[in-house]
TrEMBL record:
SUPFAM superfamilies: P-loop containing nucleoside triphosphate hydrolases. GO terms for biological process: DNA repair. It comes from Fusarium piperis. SMART domains: HELICc. Residues 552-569 have a biased composition (Basic residues). Residues 46-123, 539-569 are annotated as: Disordered. Residues 54-64 have a biased composition (Acidic residues). CDD domains: SF2_C_SNF. Residues 369-518 form the Helicase C-terminal domain. This is Helicase C-terminal domain-containing protein.
């Protein structure tokens, strides 16, 4: 077997004469608050806490795990296309019991128990989602004690940063790496400048993410609480904390006997009760919870995800609510069956939902993606762009931003039904005003002919470059008249670094195999996951892959020999 590529020549002529290609890996640093959440997730996997619910996605030709559109901590995201309507979740164990849609199971590694693959797979998907966009982590953040986990991760990150500063060699290497990455981003300074000058006030960061995490913390605090007044609502409606009121500051005994009350009630029940205690006939209003005699006033409201949804429901009755993130033909994602969309609703921009509103955190990868898009739109306004995004919430986040900027785009992923996908392709091919197609690698990475576009962004990396190359070949193919451009977005200090090394190591082995004996070597899920989290550098991965190839060849020879011997017998 001899492998031909588009760069091959015959008698001095290219076999496929296409315009030049320009590719770049754009490395971006994660913000401290992103790193903290990613570390908290990582620590959870190491403790064996989070689990994953798998979905069907493209099955790699080399026996790789299927790609997914999962979200850590998000339950199944129901899509219009029945053949692709799948759950979209990475969930901790406490969220077990969710439905599992039909799926193509990844191959088991015969050398390891299935449970080993499942744990590694969960970890792999979760860490990819964590760096893709922060709102992928909604359900994970709504699990108990996550705020504590994030605080611990933040403290550890500070210690690591101090350690790097104290180590001269490590500090210099870190500084040099950051400088190199910064040079790479200068190519897209036009888009970066637009974001800093025109859209800076749109971008949420650590403060906004903290507010969203507070929603989750409040949800846990009111869970299982019954209003002490009406004795019916569990949890209380519009939960509000009782505030202590000091009645007699002159009485030492009164102050000493005063209890601290943090009980939670329905807002209406508490207000009605307090108002009764403030009439002309003086009545001392005490906490109705047995064993508590604190004098109460109306304290702080505890806004929860349920409050956001209820408030938005009431707001819809006053003013029609348009789900943010719709594409140019009306395709949208409105949430999953478990309703883990409160973070998106809280950042929707509606002033009448009694919460903020909070600016949506962009995250480093999405921000870098927008820098590339805005630069290309400015420099080459007639060129069309395909953005490959693997996770529904990341795609929706990008959709919300593009919609708010007034930039038309089309979804070609699980958000869209079959008819919507057909319409999106038709619009993208035929309508000169439609410049951006947002696709997943499963839906848009194979069997499509799209030379109408000549620019590609890959937001989420995969196990090997073969899948990504296939995605890029949607535009770099016969019929392409323009030079093509490919940008991959990678996050420093994340799973992307390990994926990058694994891709390169596997590519080297496959290339050698094709040249030597024509075999395309298979690496199973478990093998890839073990190398991914092994701590080996790229050279170590390559050596491990080579050893695995030799082991498989020896095993095949032994089987063949045994069969031959059996036949002779």
């Amino acid at each position: 077997m001899y492998r031909r590529t588009q760069n091959e020549t015959f008698l001095g002529y290219k076999i496929v004469d296409l315009p030049n290609t320009h590719s770049q890996d754009l490395w971006v640093p994660l913000e401290d608050w992103e790193m903290a959440m990613m570390r908290a997730l990582q620590n959870g996997y190491e403790k064996g806490q989070p689990a994953v619910e798998e979905h069907d996605e493209e099955q790699e030709d080399e026996g790789e795990p299927k790609d997914t559109d999962q979200v850590p901590g998000a339950a199944g995201e129901k899509e219009g296309d029945e053949t692709e309507a799948q759950d979209d979740t990475v969930k901790p164990e406490s969220a077990a019991g969710e439905e599992e849609d039909d799926e193509v199971k990844a191959q088991d590694d015969t050398d390891k128990p299935p449970s080993t693959n499942e744990g590694g797979w969960s970890r792999f998907i979760g860490l990819r989602q964590a760096v893709s966009h922060p709102l992928n982590l909604e359900k994970f953040l709504r699990e108990k004690n996550r705020e504590k986990d994030i605080r611990l991760a933040t403290e550890r990150l500070k210690e690591e940063a101090e350690s790097i500063q104290n180590d001269a060699d490590e500090s210099n290497a870190h500084t040099e790496q950051m400088a190199q990455d910064k040079v790479g981003r200068e190519r897209f300074s036009v888009g970066a400048h637009q974001i800093e000058t025109l859209y800076k006030d749109w971008i949420g960061g650590a403060e906004e993410m903290a507010k969203l995490r507070t929603l989750a913390a409040n949800e846990h605090e009111v869970r299982g609480v019954t209003c002490g007044f009406c004795k019916k609502k569990k949890p209380p409606v519009d939960p509000t904390r009782g505030a202590n009121v000091r009645v007699n500051f002159d009485s030492v005994a009164s102050t000493a006997n005063e209890q601290q009350c943090k009980h939670i009630f329905c807002e209406t029940c508490l207000i009605v009760g307090v108002s009764k205690g403030s009439r002309s006939v003086k009545i001392e209003f005490t906490c109705p919870v047995p064993g508590c005699s604190a004098t109460l006033g109306v304290g702080e409201s505890l806004i929860t995800p349920a409050c956001i949804k209820e408030s938005l429901k009431n707001a819809k009755e006053l003013k029609p609510f348009k789900e943010p993130g719709r594409d140019s033909i009306g395709t949208q994602w409105s949430g999953d069956r478990d309703g883990c969309t409160s973070f998106f609703l809280a950042t929707c921009g509606r002033e009448d939902i009694d919460y903020g509103p909070v600016k949506m955190p962009w995250g480093s990868k999405v921000k870098a993606t927008m820098e590339v898009i805005l630069t290309w739109v400015k420099e080459a306004p007639d060129d069309k762009i395909i953005v490959f995004v693997e996770f529904t919430r990341t795609a929706k986040a990008l959709g919300c931003i593009l919609e708010k900027m007034g930039i038309g785009f089309l979804y070609y992923n699980r958000m869209a039904s079959s008819s919507q996908k057909d319409k999106a392709l038709h619009e993208f091919r035929e309508n000169p005003r439609q410049k951006i197609l947002m696709a997943s690698m499963k839906c848009g990475g194979q069997a499509l002919d799209l030379p109408v576009a000549n620019r590609v962004i890959i937001v989420d990396l995969w196990y090997n470059k073969t899948t990504e190359e296939q995605a890029f070949k949607r535009v770099h193919r016969l019929g392409q008249k323009k030079e093509t451009h490919l940008v991959r977005i990678l996050a420093r200090g994340s799973i992307d670094e390990r994926l990058y090394m694994l891709q390169n190591a596997k590519q080297a082995i496959v290339n050698r195999a094709m040249q030597d004996d024509g075999h395309l070597i298979e690496f199973s899920d478990g093998q890839s996951l073990r190398w991914l989290f092994s701590g080996e550098n790229e050279e170590g991965m390559r050596q491990g892959l080579e050893a695995e190839v030799r082991r498989k060849k020896d095993k095949m020879k032994a089987k063949t020999k045994a069969k031959t011997k059996k036949k002779k017998a």
